[in-house]
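Bug #77: duplicate submission created two jobs. Keeping one. Sequence:
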Amino acid sequence: MLRDELSKEEILGIARKIIHEGPICNHCLGRQFAKISSGVSNEIRGEIVRELLTGAVQDGKCWLCNGLFAELDRWAEAALKKLNSYEYDSFLVGTKLSGLLMANEELMWELTGAIFAEPLKAELNREVGKRIERATGKRVDFEKPDIVVILNLWNDDIELDVKPVFIYGRYLKYRRGIPQTRWYCRECRGKGCARCNFTGKMYAESVEELIKASIVDEFGAEDMILHGCGREDIDARMLGSGRPFVVELKEPRRRHVDLQALEAKVNTANSGKLAVTSLQYVGRDMVARIKNAKAKKTYRVVVELRRHANKEALIDAVTKLSGAMIEQRTPVRVVHRRADLIRRRRIYELKLLAYSGNTCELELKCDGGLYVKELISGDSGRTSPSFSDTLGVEAEVKELDVMDVEL
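Kept job's structure:
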């Protein structure tokens, strides 16, 4: 029953003002006193208050909700019809109130005050949510629902906000010349022109597109975004343990796919180009984790020397650079698209793996973000110290492979 935050006479006085404005349903009448009592619905509160008002019967459509609470089943059925196409474990209901209902509620609160009232859409969300919950057995989740059902009262329709599915894994790229993500044509910026053969792209395929082709249909998703833990140069391979990544699947109709089978599908479709490993479901927070990770990288570098250098000189240069702190001004090749500043990165270990004529093979372990090509060449003095300067022989990268990305 009603508690004593307001006396019975005060409650009845407010109720008479409400009823004087016109017909009102029990939901809207009881909602004005929602914070006075607990353990009963607003509809029951309304019935109690109406019984206390002798002769106060409802006659006509509710002036506040315009008959909205008489259509709770219709809204729930419309939501269930749309939800039927989606796989989900949890949901939440939200409402976009129409201008008329917002104005009516403001008028009510001017009349009665809003101290003890519950907002209209809070009750609507709860009542429709209860009906969906009973019909599906799914749970309401106020923090991280798989789907938000939006009751759009402006256009009398149901909208769904389907939360993305996130999958973590590592990818290996076996061929050079494949960028991590789609690279739009510099001339037409994706529109299509003669330079890009009207594809809108600088390169025919990317790691993102190769994975997407195999994965989007499995989840019935509208789109997919690949978030990588850094990126290798287009002409570099990604070998060894692979590069950590998270794919974000937009508006998926399915949320539970066998990831072992999915991994096999991606790898079969991209044999010789690409492979993925260690696929697992993760939360959105994993995107920020891999984007912000200070990952150490290990590279295999084949270096071409401008002139002959003996093995002892190479070993000496490698020894001097191993453990060194490198200062790099943004390389000439990327300064047009990145801030021109000086970055400091450490080399943890540098090894000479092989030497033959005017080439040598190195293994480099360093901080993420070190420009390896410029470490070797010196980039006209923009990187210091460099392998070229330390050796005393001009050098440049002939082949580059990423072997490990520590997360």
